[in-house]
Design goal:
- The chain has helices at residues 15-34, 48-55, 60-64, 84-93, 137-153, 169-185, 192-200, 211-217, 229-244, 289-292, 307-313, 333-348, 362-371, 382-387, 412-422, and strands at 38-39, 45-47, 67-70, 76-79, 102-111, 123-132, 159-165, 250-251, 263-271, 279-285, 300-306, 326-330, 353-355, 376-380, 389-394, 404-408.
- It is 38% helix and 21% strand.
- It is an alpha+beta fold.
- The protein starts with 14 loop residues before the first helix and ends in a 5-residue tail after the last helix.
- Helix 5 (137-153) packs parallel to helix 9.
- The protein has an eight-stranded mixed sheet. Strands 13-12-14-15-16 form a five-stranded mixed sheet, sandwiched between helices. It has a three-stranded antiparallel sheet with strand order 2-4-3.
- Bound molecules: histidyl-adenosine monophosphate.
- The site of histidyl-adenosine monophosphate has 26 residues, from strand 6, strand 10, strand 11 and helix 11.
């Protein structure tokens, strides 16, 4: 029979790869708890309309990339392509008005039907942060610095932060009018993809990768010239504060992002080491989304980082697994009984313990301990079982002298003392 294949663009993450994932996830979670950001978990499956309304019908994500199907009750469901719309829905459903300001994070799989390539999957993972109810420009700076500092903490080098302001709804409307006029004038010179976008989602043309269109856009009106005084002041304050914090950034007037909900600040962090899928982090302000989704008028800002891209960028130091503290070998039925009893005791003591249940020769069991790079072995043979004791011995070569000791099964004091002196000072 043919083997089952993974669906295109989906991957297994094997135990050896997961070490890096878990080490990185742990650092992220610690950073977030230090920033007093709380976790939220929302369903992976949502009503389709949540995303069509929230992200925008004419965006690529909604019009081309969603995994949408009818469930058995004939309801249209979608596997979440991102986390922001779901967080907003969860807050509205659970009484957002009761607690107007919240700092939230989430982590988990997202789904987009895109053409898979390095750094781009159909099932990928994001960790995201949303600050709900925060209006001041200082929250924009806090969210940008939070993303920046997490990436720095993980030791990721050569990152570029790009920022832009999309202004308020009115600023954007004015800009769109001028920009559409410009596009109409140059329509015949645009590439065919951009031509299709002129009526549907003109702002996305700013994102084009087509070289000729990029050339034409050099003459296009720029967003920042259409910001009203208030929007412009806000944008300038953010730039000033970022300079004060010595967070390097570039302004990119063409940065509009692929989702419709953004207002004012939009930002991305990219890395040259990622090839064509260079964006590791994307975010921005979305002051109108919560009202649009049926909640009270509530300002908000957030970002999301793609974990697969982060894993590509993070160094080898995150690939080290914790070693087995004790590898327990035993032979003979009474010895094997004692072995499982001792294993349970060691695990209660917070010792990473691997029990060999193979019942094969001691030499084969030792070979396995060696392969695992275990720090120590405990040996229980017939003789030890009769004497109600075991032999514990440092195993790894890096511990130059081979310290070993015979300890009685009942002597917990001696056991802990030995473990503390030889293996784990932290006990
Ligand atoms: P986004 O820019 O669509 O924003 O996605 C954020 C990040 O998710 C990207 O920068 C990238 O690292 C990762 N990503 C996106 N698509 C894929 C893919 N197909 N394969 C691998 N990684 C991918 C959002 O999703 C917004 N919800 C961010 C946000 C939160 N804005 C405000 N709050």
């Amino acid at each position: 029979m043919d083997k089952f294949k993974n669906l295109r663009g989906t991957f297994d993450i094997l135990p050896s790869q997961l070490v890096k994932w878990q080490n990185i996830e742990n650092i992220i979670k610690i950073q977030l708890s230090r920033s007093f950001v709380k976790e939220i978990r929302t369903p992976i499956l949502e009503m389709t309309e949540l995303f069509t309304r929230g992200i925008g019908e004419n965006t690529d994500v909604v019009s081309k990339e969603m995994y949408t199907f009818k469930d058995r009750g004939d309801r249209s469901c979608t596997l979440r392509p991102e986390g922001t719309a779901s967080v907003v829905r969860a807050l509205i459903n659970n009484g957002l008005s009761v607690k107007p300001q919240q700092k939230l994070w989430y982590m988990g799989p997202m789904f987009r039907y895109e053409r898979p390539q390095a750094g781009r999957q159909r099932q990928f993972h994001q960790f995201g942060v949303e600050f709900i109810g925060y209006k001041s420009y200082r929250s924009d700076v806090e969210i940008i610095s939070l993303a920046w500092d997490i990436l720095q903490r993980l030791g990721i080098k050569h990152l570029n932060l790009e920022i832009n302001s999309l202004g308020n709804t009115n600023d954007r409307k004015n800009y769109q009018q001028a920009f559409t006029k410009f596009l109409d004038k140059n329509y015949s010179s645009l590439d065919s993809d951009s031509q299709k976008r002129v009526n549907k989602n003109p702002m996305r043309i700013l994102d084009t990768k087509n070289k000729d269109t990029i050339q034409i856009l050099k003459e296009a009106p720029i967003l920042v010239d259409f910001l009203c005084d208030e929007s412009l002041e806000r944008y300038c304050q953010i730039k000033e504060q970022l300079k004060f914090l010595k967070i390097p950034f570039e302004e990119n007037y063409k940065l509009v992002r692929g989702l419709d909900y953004y207002t004012h600040t939009a930002f991305e962090i990219t890395s040259g080491a990622l090839g064509s899928q260079a964006t590791v982090c994307g975010g921005g302000r979305y002051d109108n989304l919560i009202k649009l989704m049926g909640g009270n008028e509530t300002p908000a800002i957030g970002f999301a980082i793609g974990l697969e891209r982060l894993i590509i960028l993070a160094g080898k130091e995150y690939e080290n697994d914790r070693l087995v503290d004790v590898y327990l070998v035993s032979k003979g039925s009474s010895a094997e009984n004692y072995a499982i009893q001792l294993t349970r005791k060691l695990r209660k003591l917070n010792i990473i313990t691997e029990l060999d249940t193979s019942g094969t020769s001691f030499s084969k069991q030792f070979k396995k301990a060696n392969k695992l790079n275990a720090k120590s072995v405990i040996v229980i043979g017939e003789e030890e079982a009769t004497k109600k004791e075991f032999l514990i011995r440092l195993f790894n070569d890096q511990y130059k002298e081979n310290k070993e000791k015979r300890i009685s099964f009942d002597d917990d004091y001696e056991l802990v003392k030995w473990l503390k002196t030889n293996l784990r000072e932290d006990l």
